[in-house]
């Protein structure tokens, strides 16, 4: 490129990382966990004094053996790494904070962690609400999504569910998601993992076009995805000799002003830079990269242009054989000389052979340009918190509707339980001494079934969703509080619906003589019990990263709740402990509403066992409260218990989100 062309396009953005070191606690084996906690922990350095740079227009491959530190370096440069990380990351000489880095870059993880029930179009359109400026219209979002699907060759698969896409298509969909914000820097962790050679080549070819071109034409895209990808549904040509599809900028000025993530500055060419960790690329994929970084033992041993690597190794005495994949040769050379003096020579000589230099053009102009760019990006405004909650609730409900078959099966078994209980207790009939225990047992089974059904029904939530939450919260897509509130609110209508439906079958068979008002009171109490049970279940879910562990460790909690629920032992045996039990509040409120208005219970003279003469005596015998406010106090207590569980659960989930490692 000559000087006039470079001046016309504007100064490059150069991202430089200096002396990056990353430390993790060393794992030491010991039979005594207490001793492990007390002894001073050693730290292991897995990234050692890594320095380098990348400029817009570069497509860089990070090569190295397993455990060389490729992913760690990628996460450290992109500021997606939490923990003991030292060193600096600067943009044209300006230090970059974590929140700034996530604004101007995107991180493509090795494994797809998007929702499988959405279609490709729905997923991108949904994410556009979070990632684009809040003043963006729906029409502009749809246009953006359509452009991205076309750019990554997924137009024909736009309405296919993600779970039905091939591995290569899912990779390209993940790439399209990251391009919504029009990032300047792309960080891709093993983007070709699990793909066949053609799909892998297509993904890297797409990245090459993003880094070297501002516009993608029909001709350039057809080279990657084939001519068939650019025909209309009727089979005719679209009539455009060149699809002037802006991947990273809109042409009209108002859109650039209102959506900073769709354009840098009005005069910017919007070229990108991408850096990928990659494992054993084929020779044709290797040739697509403009630069390579070789890593060994957490150190960068070479960084430079791809075509200069062969000379670099030749000068050190390692001749690249004919008809040999260069990537395989470089990795094999490093592996064969690990720990030898030659490996040290490679390390010492790496910067002498990097001929690109750090910056191009005027230093002052480049620094001013990056400063203006960062100010421009900071003016970006995401959607409000309440709208985040709304969108996440829509996502949860959409997932449930897409999984309606499994949901109906679960609901069917839930109702079978209701029918079974109604048949078992249908002979209760009138209120006699023999039916007092039956009524207490039926009410206890009502609350028990609701609490166990809802608590165990949500224990899987966080172990399954934590990778998605950690990534999307870490990327700033939405706040953790918005996600948690949306999750909790999405269960409230389900709790009330199932609570009243479950009760309806049993009430119609057993308690129908007591009137409709008691049905409403009992239904409200069961619904609140379900809400509290959701809090309890989410608490169990947040304790561990495995749903199996969460279910197994629920046993001691269940035992305590059942013992102090008022059925298996008198609640006054251990004063105060009854208030720890969900079952106590639920059983007490149900028993209170059922018995408080019963003035007389038949008490035959020839009965051998003790005789209770009124509902008040039944409550007193079970040590339940009989004050007028008892029912509403128990309702409030159930809500309070739910809130306490949710506060603790939120803290546990937040701890996982902010733990060390990359997201």
UniProtKB/TrEMBL annotation:
Membrane topology: Multi-pass membrane protein
UniProt-listed InterPro entries: AAA+_ATPase, ABC2_TM, ABC_transporter-like_ATP-bd, ABC_transporter-like_CS, ABCG_dom, ABCG_transporters, P-loop_NTPase
Compartment(s) where it occurs, according to its Swiss-Prot or TrEMBL record: Membrane
SUPFAM superfamilies for this protein: P-loop containing nucleoside triphosphate hydrolases (SSF52540)
Annotated GO MF terms: ABC-type transporter activity; ATP binding; ATP hydrolysis activity
Membrane-spanning segments: 407-431, 451-469, 481-510, 516-541, 629-653
Keyword Electron transport: no
PROSITE patterns to which the protein is assigned, alphabetical: ABC_TRANSPORTER_1, ABC_TRANSPORTER_2
GO cellular component, one term: plasma membrane
Alphabetized UniProt keyword annotations: ATP-binding, Membrane, Nucleotide-binding, Transmembrane, Transmembrane helix, Transport
Domain ABC transporter: 32-322
Keyword Membrane: yes
PANTHER family hit by this protein: ABC TRANSPORTER G FAMILY MEMBER 28, PROTEIN BROWN
Family stated for the protein in its record: Belongs to the ABC transporter superfamily. ABCG family. Eye pigment precursor importer (TC 3.A.1.204) subfamily.
Protein name per its UniProtKB record: Protein brown
Species: Drosophila madeirensis (Fruit fly)
